[in-house]
Amino acid sequence: DGSRKGLSLVGVRLPCQRNPTMVLHRRDRWRNVRCQREPTLSDMNLKQLTTFVRIVEKGSFAAAAEALHTTQSTVSARVKELEHYFGVELFDRSSHRAQLTAKGRELFGMSRHVVGELEQLRDRIADKQALTGTLRLGVVGVVAGTWLPALVGELRERHPALELRVEVALSRTL
User: Fold this and answer.
1) Which of 5, 47, 92, 173 lies at 20 to 30 Å from 15 by C-alpha?
2) How many Cα atoms are found within 13 Å in the side-chain-facing hemisphere of 115?
């Protein structure tokens, strides 16, 4: 106990599991303190990753903030959150330019790919004009040999996610 002579527990943190750590701030006075936990995947978000990629692409925090239509302090905060998540520094802050560390270069290579894929996903899903799924066409031989190839080419160009299934047969069969 902290009341014994010569033994002081002031400022000593007890082990942290799932509950907050108890810290003795003054003699016989305990207070809850949040424990530092390991970051989880949900602690990282797409804005942080996109911000990181834009900083590298634009060459500075200020240029990235402008491109993302946000403030430089928001960009800095997002980078700090990413650095906390990974537990490493991503930028060498000894110069005025945004210079990547070795871990930052490694993250950039993968992040650029992830952000690019997510932007494509957003564009494809958000495009209300894009057709997806399967389109089954039944045509007679004359149509298959005249204007159908042009139609199929146009559909494939405009709607690459659309699967076309063409069946050529006699009118009765169709």
Assistant:
1) 5
2) 18
